[in-house]
């Protein structure tokens, strides 16, 4: 086997001697391929070693010789371009591999395509349009834009809603990454809130991070080079910004090189999470490669500390192997580069990175990434294609949220930036009305501690942000509207980045019962003070794509051949970037006329002077226009060709953020024919974008607007704002082209056109321009002409015929005091002062409709003391459309050509048909449905369709929005904190809260109803004064009336009888003393008033039924141990158990109002809990038997749910307010809720109105009982007396009988003795 041969030359300069090149080639036979790498970087070093190993393997396996020529580009596009020419023209390579950056790939793509040599780029950030432009361009590295889905998934897992994106301001790659990240975040309900552009070659980024240090609890996504990331995290750690209070997520641009860092460097990245490119490291093929790689890498680069191969090494190995196989196959056939390209496209083999295959000259997009604990370098697999986070790459693994992995990431409780923060150096200024009509809500009497319900609720919310300081500031200069306006005027803080989190905390305060306690303390507990009184057409890029070489050649020719002392121009940043290095190296001042140069440029190149003011401040004007028309969401359209757009987007994002507007979409226009714009605009049409800011070249804008006009996207439903790259050249267009820009508002650079100096220049310019450029239709000078005139004049004045070196020339230029055509020429640190004044133009008319001054606002004129500045463009009485027309445009938020309706879910199992009734499948009705229809009538072009859903509960129904089954939900859906993670809600359209419904019972026991006219104390006083008056009369009259005398017991009875009978009988003629008569008259007068009052009050009570709740409050309900009812499938079940403390076995679910009523009547439940609107409905149906009792428990009202980030939610809320303020909402409530007929109203009026025995049985018992007692006493006493008399009588009879008997007995004995004596004489 022959030895492998690879000619590897690391040449840092394209100036290579021809002789040495041919000498090199003559020693090597066989086909050759080229590679352009930055071999001074870690990426280039790994790729170089891996490519050499691949060539060795190919030669060993095939016994074929393939020569590899490597050139060092030093990451400079111009060197890459020169290297490509050398490889193709001199070394006759059959293909070129590399480089790793898009800017370098861009510089060699056209060279390869023109020579029909396949160019295989290893850059992972190639724009989609690149392959369409260059037929021999191949993307040999998988695109990693899909990692943004992984980043979004991580952010969603931690419940974050706003992200600060940190990128490097060096190329156009960042803007494409920004666009993909924005789209991914939008899909999970998050957004990019801030953009931080990091300048290159800076040792510290404290200036860029300082502003965000004050916003603890921030989520940062970092997409920079590894070198910039190391400096960034070192600075952030030193500033205390790396820790549990901030979440940092880094992309593969950083993590793919973590293996090259030492422990000391990694220590500054403690707690950072990363997304890393995945490749299988456990396979034997990689283990063998890794062993050989480490040996070779260590020998070639001993200065490196770590020798492990990374993703760039394995990708370079696979790409080289693929090209080698294709070259070997194509040698057998003819066809040159086209044939080789076909073989490359058909390559299919298993490489180190996995399956290697191409589709349409693109490597398959990376779909799997690893989640990295940066400091520990521990990895957990992830698939962003809708699967989630697995613990391994096993196909059977279950996918879930990152917080459930149980890995080395912090738990959700450990990371809660909305609740745990470091003390902030600034204080949130909170306006408080100095004078409130209701002290219970806002009480500022105590200057040291404000109180009141609203103040305490605010304090309770801010407890969820313990380290966010705030200060109450009293406001006494106007109404509440004036106070709120101070937020806009910056008197109080605005743009707080955690508004959504505050809303969640507010809902939690409400649902936890804390809001109810505060309401009790400050409102419900108030004592009633009256309680006693109550009753592009060319697809070819041409020479413009070789601008690097052309500009560079031109600059070197001017310096080396013409010996110029200074260079003026060019007008673009990319061209300036090309010659700034050349000029600074030769110490020749370069005066750039580009208005989009980054701020760090003059720091990097000491001989670069920015001779044109940058126009970034125009983004503030754009934001002011958008805010004037009440728009809330913006789509930016930019040109995907250079890095300028990334800076513009950053400035626009900040400007929009300052006025409360979101940039929801970024649209990159490729340099393709205008036919490609149709699909781009069609997507925007479908996605319902209506406000567009266009920042492109004029050549790109013309076909864009032409396509938009053909698609009817330039009418009354859309807002188009053109920026200065377009408007500054409007004067060069003809009327036909201008006609496609109807309705567009533009922001144009300002320069004074009325002065005599300009008029002289104008005449000279028109004459000379016409002679030199007769093909042009318009000869008027614009901003570029006057800026070039001024810069040339200043430079000429500085030279002034004297010999000076570069530094002296720059110093003289900076000292020139000149008022030119464009205004005052004033330099600061080699930069012309930024533009602060712009014109607002009507594009079609090309007329100035007003001016905008940074810090002042809009005005109709400038330059005099009478200029009147206003904050809104609608106050300018110029040729903009009327406010009514603009309001119409605001309401019409969708294009009339949009045919995709919103899918609106409707529940099929609503317990209350009055809110949602789906019985009629052709036309749904109900209060909630009709309110939704009424709102949508205010947005006539927003189409929708109702879709019936059989989800078991409303939370599951709302969750279907998150699952993309529905776009919205129209139902009686309560706004809850737990549901906000699935959808965004409108403002509530009903009252909020829960109410307890219980049965009614008579307010007092029916038998004692006669006692209710007077209170107990009144009855006691009446009884006492009556007895007292009776005593007085008795005492006075007893000396005149014998009837008032007798025993003590008799006199007490007479006194009481006399006292109470005087209430009803006049005894005046029987009284003998004037004293008693006087007491009697006054008492009768008082008694008359008392009896009449009693009669009136008693009659009123009998006429109006007096009922009261059977259970007065929740404490009483709990004491009765009764069950409670709620609507089946509603959130109330959770509220009853978690907040009110009812056990589950005491809860009963019902589906209809009839079931509620039946259960309450039967005693199955003691109470039922319903939302306020449903409680109204229930009580209107059962108006006589039930009532609400206790307090109203705070909970969210009913709202309509929409998908997160829905761009027209603000307009829907506005339409809802209009429905409410016009009275339509009240009418619908009357129709569907309050008009419900009381099902108990048919009860007999006689039954309700007649007085029954039940009302007076106590009286009957009293009088009957009294009479019975009297009768009983009478009978008993009478019987006793009769018995006594009878006993006395019987006693006398008995005595007589005994006397007779006794007498007879004695007489008998005397008779017997006499007879005896008679029969026997003594002398017989």
Automatic annotation (TrEMBL):
Pfam families linked: ANF_receptor, Lig_chan
Residue ranges annotated for the Ionotropic glutamate receptor C-terminal domain, each copy included: 901-1235
Keyword Transport belongs to the record: yes
Domain Solute-binding protein family 3/N-terminal: 901-1236
Record membrane topology: Multi-pass membrane protein
Gene Ontology molecular-function annotations: ligand-gated monoatomic ion channel activity
Family matches, as SUPFAM superfamilies: Periplasmic binding protein-like I, Periplasmic binding protein-like II
Coiled-coil boundaries: none
Keyword vocabulary terms for this entry: Glycoprotein, Ion channel, Ion transport, Ligand-gated ion channel, Membrane, Receptor, Transmembrane, Transmembrane helix, Transport
Listed transmembrane segments: 1018-1036, 1048-1068, 1080-1102, 1256-1277
Subcellular location: Membrane
GO cellular component entries: membrane
PANTHER family the UniProt entry points to: OS06G0188250 PROTEIN (PTHR34836), RECEPTOR LIGAND BINDING REGION DOMAIN-CONTAINING PROTEIN (PTHR34836:SF9)
Name of this chain's protein: Glutamate receptor
Protein species of origin: Escallonia rubra
């Amino acid at each position: 086997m022959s030895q492998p041969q690879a000619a590897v030359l690391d040449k840092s300069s394209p100036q290579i001697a021809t002789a040495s090149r041919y000498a090199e080639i003559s020693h090597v036979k066989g086909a050759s391929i080229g590679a352009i790498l930055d071999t001074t970087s870690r990426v280039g070093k790994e790729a170089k070693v891996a490519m050499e190993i691949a060539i060795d393997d190919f030669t060993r396996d095939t016994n074929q010789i393939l020569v590899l020529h490597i050139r060092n580009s030093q990451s400079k596009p111009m060197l890459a371009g020169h290297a490509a020419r050398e490889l193709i023209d001199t070394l006759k390579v059959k293909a070129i591999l590399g480089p790793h950056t898009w800017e370098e790939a861009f510089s060699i793509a056209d060279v390869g395509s023109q020579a029909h040599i396949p160019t295989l780029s290893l850059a992972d950030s190639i724009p989609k349009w690149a392959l369409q432009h260059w037929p021999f361009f191949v993307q040999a590295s998988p695109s990693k834009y899909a990692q943004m889905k992984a980043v979004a998934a991580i952010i969603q897992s931690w419940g974050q809603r706003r992200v600060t994106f940190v990128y490097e301001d060096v190329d156009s790659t960042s803007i494409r990454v920004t666009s993909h990240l924005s789209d991914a975040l939008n899909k999970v309900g998050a957004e990019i809130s801030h953009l931080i552009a990091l300048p290159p070659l800076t040792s510290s980024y404290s200036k860029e991070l300082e502003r965000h240090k004050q916003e603890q609890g921030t989520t940062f996504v970092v997409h920079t080079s590894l070198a910039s990331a190391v400096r960034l995290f070192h600075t952030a750690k030193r500033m205390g910004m790396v820790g549990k209070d901030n979440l940092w997520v880094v992309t593969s641009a950083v993590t793919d090189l973590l293996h090259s860092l030492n422990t000391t460097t990694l220590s500054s990245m403690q707690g950072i999470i990363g997304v890393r490119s995945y490749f299988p490291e456990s396979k034997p093929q990689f283990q063998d490669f890794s062993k050989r790689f480490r040996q070779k890498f260590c020998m070639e680069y001993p200065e490196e500390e770590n020798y492990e191969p990374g993703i760039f090494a394995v990708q370079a190995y696979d790409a080289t192997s693929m090209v080698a196989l294709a070259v070997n196959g194509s040698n057998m056939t003819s066809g040159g580069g086209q044939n080789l390209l076909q073989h490359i496209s058909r390559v299919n083999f298993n490489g180190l990175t996995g399956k290697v295959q191409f589709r349409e000259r693109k490597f398959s997009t990376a779909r799997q990434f690893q989640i990295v604990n940066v400091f520990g370098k521990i990895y957990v697999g992830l698939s962003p294609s809708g699967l989630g986070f697995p613990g391994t790459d096993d196909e059977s693994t279950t996918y879930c949220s990152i917080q459930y992995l149980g890995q080395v990431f912090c738990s959700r409780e450990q990371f809660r930036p909305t609740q745990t923060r470091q003390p902030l150096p600034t204080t949130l200024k909170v306006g408080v009305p100095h004078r409130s009509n209701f002290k219970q809500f806002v009480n500022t009497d105590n200057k040291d501690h404000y109180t009141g319900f609203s103040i305490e609720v605010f304090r309770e919310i801010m407890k969820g942000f313990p380290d966010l300081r705030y200060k109450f500031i009293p406001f006494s200069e106007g109404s509440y509207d004036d106070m709120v306006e101070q937020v806009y005027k910056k008197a109080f803080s605005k743009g707080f980045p955690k508004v959504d989190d505050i809303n969640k905390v507010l809902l939690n305060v409400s649902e936890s019962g804390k809001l109810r306690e505060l309401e009790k303390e400050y409102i419900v507990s108030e004592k009633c003070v009256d309680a006693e009184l109550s009753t592009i057409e060319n697809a070819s890029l041409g020479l413009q794509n070789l601008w690097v070489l052309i500009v560079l050649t031109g600059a070197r020719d001017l310096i080396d051949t013409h010996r110029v002392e200074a260079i003026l121009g060019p007008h673009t940043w990319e061209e300036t970037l090309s010659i700034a290095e050349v000029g600074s190296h030769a110490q020749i001042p370069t005066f750039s006329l580009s208005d989009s140069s980054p701020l760090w440029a003059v720091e990097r190149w000491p001989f670069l002077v920015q001779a044109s003011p940058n126009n970034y401040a125009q983004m503030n004007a754009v934001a002011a226009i958008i805010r004037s028309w009440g728009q809330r969401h913006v789509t930016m359209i930019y040109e995907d060709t250079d890095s300028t757009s990334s800076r513009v987007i950053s400035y626009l994002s900040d400007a929009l953020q300052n006025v409360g507007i979101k940039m929801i979409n970024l649209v990159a226009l490729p340099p393709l024919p205008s036919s490609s714009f149709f699909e781009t605009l069609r997507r925007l049409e479908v996605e319902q974008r209506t406000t567009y800011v266009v920042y492109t070249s004029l050549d790109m804008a013309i076909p864009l607007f032409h396509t938009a006009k053909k698609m009817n996207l330039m009418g009354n439903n859309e807002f188009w704002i053109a920026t200065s790259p377009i408007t500054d050249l409007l004067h060069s267009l003809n009327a036909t082209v201008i006609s496609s820009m109807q309705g567009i508002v533009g922001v144009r650079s300002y320069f004074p056109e009325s002065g005599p100096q300009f008029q002289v220049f104008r005449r000279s310019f028109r004459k000379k321009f016409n002679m030199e450029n007769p093909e042009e239709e318009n000869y008027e000078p614009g901003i570029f002409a006057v800026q070039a005139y001024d810069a040339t004049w200043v430079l000429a004045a500085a030279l002034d015929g004297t010999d000076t070196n570069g530094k002296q020339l720059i110093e003289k230029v900076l000292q020139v005091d000149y008022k030119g055509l464009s205004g005052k020429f004033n330099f600061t640190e080699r930069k012309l002062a930024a533009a602060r004044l712009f014109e607002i133009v009507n594009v079609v008319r090309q007329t100035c409709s007003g001016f905008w001054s940074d810090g002042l606002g809009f005005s109709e004129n400038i330059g005099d003391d009478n200029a009147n500045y206003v904050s809104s463009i609608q106050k300018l009485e110029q040729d903009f459309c009327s406010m009514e027309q603009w309001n119409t445009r605001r309401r019409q938020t969708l294009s009339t050509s949009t045919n995709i309706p919103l899918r609106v879910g409707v529940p099929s199992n609503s317990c209350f048909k009055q809110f949602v009734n789906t019985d009629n499948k052709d036309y749904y009705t109900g209060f909630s449905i009709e309110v939704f229809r009424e709102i949508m009538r205010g947005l006539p072009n927003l189409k929708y369709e109702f879709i019936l859903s059989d989800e078991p509960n409303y939370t599951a129904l709302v969750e279907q929005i998150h699952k993309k089954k529905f776009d919205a939900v129209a139902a009686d859906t309560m706004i809850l904190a737990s549901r906000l993670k699935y959808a965004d809600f409108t403002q509530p359209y009903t009252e909020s809260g829960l109410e307890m419904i219980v049965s009614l019972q008579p307010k007092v026991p029916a038998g004692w109803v006669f006692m209710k006219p007077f209170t107990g104390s009144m009855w006691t006083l009446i009884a006492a004064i009556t007895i007292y008056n009776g005593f007085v009369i008795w005492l006075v009259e007893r000396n005149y009336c014998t009837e008032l005398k007798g025993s003590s017991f008799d006199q007490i009875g007479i006194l009481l009888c006399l006292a109470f009978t005087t209430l009803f009988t006049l005894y005046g003629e029987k009284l003998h003393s004037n004293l008693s008569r006087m007491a009697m008259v006054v008492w009768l007068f008082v008694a008359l008033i008392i009896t009449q009052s009693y009669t009136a009050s008693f009659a009123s009570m009998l006429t109006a039924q007096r009922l009261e709740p059977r259970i007065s409050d929740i404490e009483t309900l709990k004491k009765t141990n009764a069950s409670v009812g709620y609507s089946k499938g509603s959130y109330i079940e959770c509220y009853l158990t978690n907040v009110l403390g009812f056990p589950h076995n005491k809860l009963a679910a019902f589906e209809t109002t009839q079931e509620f009523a039946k259960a309450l009547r039967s005693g199955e439940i003691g109470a039922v809990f319903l939302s306020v609107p449903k409680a109204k409905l229930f009580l209107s149906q059962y108006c006589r038997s039930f009532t609400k009792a206790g307090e109203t428990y705070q909970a969210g009202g009913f709202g309509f749910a929409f998908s997160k980030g829905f761009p027209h939610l603000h307009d829907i809320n506005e339409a809802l307010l209009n429905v409410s303020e016009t009275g339509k909402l009240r009418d619908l409530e009357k129709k569907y809720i309050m008009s419900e007929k009381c099902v108990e109203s048919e009860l007999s009026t006689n039954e309700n109105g007649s007085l029954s025995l039940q009302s007076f049985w106590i009286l009957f018992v009293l009088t009957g009982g009294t009479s019975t007692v009297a009768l009983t006493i009478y009978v008993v006493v009478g019987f006793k007396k009769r018995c006594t008399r009878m006993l006395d009588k019987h006693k006398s009879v008995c005595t007589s009988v005994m006397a007779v008997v006794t007498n007879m007995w004695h007489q008998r004995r005397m008779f017997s003795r006499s007879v005896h004596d008679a029969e026997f004489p003594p002398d017989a």
